[in-house]
């Protein structure tokens, strides 16, 4: 009997040990609390009350490993409704944690909380989290850093140090007041007052010499820079004077490494680069700079944020009059540089990190994306393109209207009536010369229209910029999926000739990609994630004007192919 008892306790010990091993293999559970609070911040000699997470601007990093479960309790202590989006996290079957207000959840109201609960599956690298309601993400944002699984390494040289660099925009005025006023008048919103590097405007701005980001490095070392564009409305060029950067990752997907001295990052995109410092102490200081890439006809913040790259002296002596090396950036509207740069991104496409691009296509879609107009309310004048119109934006001429309840809730509980429809047009209802002379009627239609996809549908989507109110670059972000950029070009997409040039071998996999100004982009993805998934321009002014839509992916047959039930603390509208 004693022997049996001894054997059973040994068996229990072995099972416990096995469970611990399995638990480690499957990842840890990481807990975070995000308190949304008011927070006074001074920039450009101007103090403003902002909204932030844990009174930090930019917000705190969310750090986890591939395979970890992440639980974030978000507590709202402010008057605004709020929700948080984990930008680029796949959210496999956990759409309730995706975050866009009125799409996957009602926002978290004052003095309420909500627990976001998701597992990071098959992803590692740099992403970002940000508020996903109105323009609150201007100050509510921060990095997501996903480390490889334990005992797994990077597919590139191990860096001496890792540094996160978040590019942002600073407004002296409350961004909520800015967009509220713009939507009222129908005009373009006021632009930001500065760009920032890790929340600091830098040398060129008024009152900002002390508010300048400094990156201190040692000679002969390799640094991994995790670059994030958290700006509201601007794609940004980035450079470090007289240094070459090696791109190794985009949107948390490893790339075939390539060298560049300057790069472009759209809002919502992330880029990891290796910075190899000079072998000897250079007795020079190198400027870090970011400024906008702008192709539209509207006004924009035409300024430059600057930080400083400083080398540590080998004997810790202060430098004597170091030379200040100036940066070199592309022209504001250099579409050719942007096209050439984005074409350099290629997936590793090897055994360990395959590029599983769909080779066959079940459903094809052709979406026009661009600006348009809406008529002014009767007996009023507006500040849009004419005094009788307001600015608007659309996908296939449908300007998306957010409902007053969450689409995912309405879908799950079978209450879609009056909330959304499933008749989003698969192609433009009235074809025209998209990049030529604009049609006479530029008015958009309004609606909450979705596309329904059966589970595991392979999708090819061509997004075509239009020249209505001027050709403009549009960084499109798809929630819930990564997609493969299989082709891009200028002018109108040619459905006969262009597909022959698609890259189906090693296309870049992303969650956000720019539709070129006066051009098109072709993407493919597998609809293997049930739920309602938002797709929108990541220039928030265009999202506010209606350049957005939603995909509704049905459940699959297997239990792990079905949307999980909603959590008990899901916010109510």
Automatic annotation (TrEMBL):
Entry's transmembrane regions: none
CDD domains for this protein: CuRO_1_LCC_plant, CuRO_2_LCC_plant, CuRO_3_LCC_plant
Signal peptide boundaries: 1-27
A GO term for molecular function: copper ion binding
GO cellular component terms, A-Z: apoplast
Domain Plastocyanin-like: 36-149, 162-313, 425-554
Catalysis: reaction(s): 4 hydroquinone + O2 = 4 benzosemiquinone + 2 H2O
Note accompanying the cofactor annotation: Binds 4 Cu cations per monomer.
Keyword terms: Apoplast, Copper, Glycoprotein, Lignin degradation, Metal-binding, Oxidoreductase, Repeat, Secreted, Signal
Localization per Swiss-Prot or TrEMBL: Secreted, Extracellular space, Apoplast
EC number: 1.10.3.2
Any GO BP: lignin catabolic process
Database matches in PANTHER family: LACCASE, MULTI-COPPER OXIDASE
NCBIfam families for the chain: laccase
Protein name (Swiss-Prot/TrEMBL): Laccase
Native species: Gossypium mustelinum (Cotton)
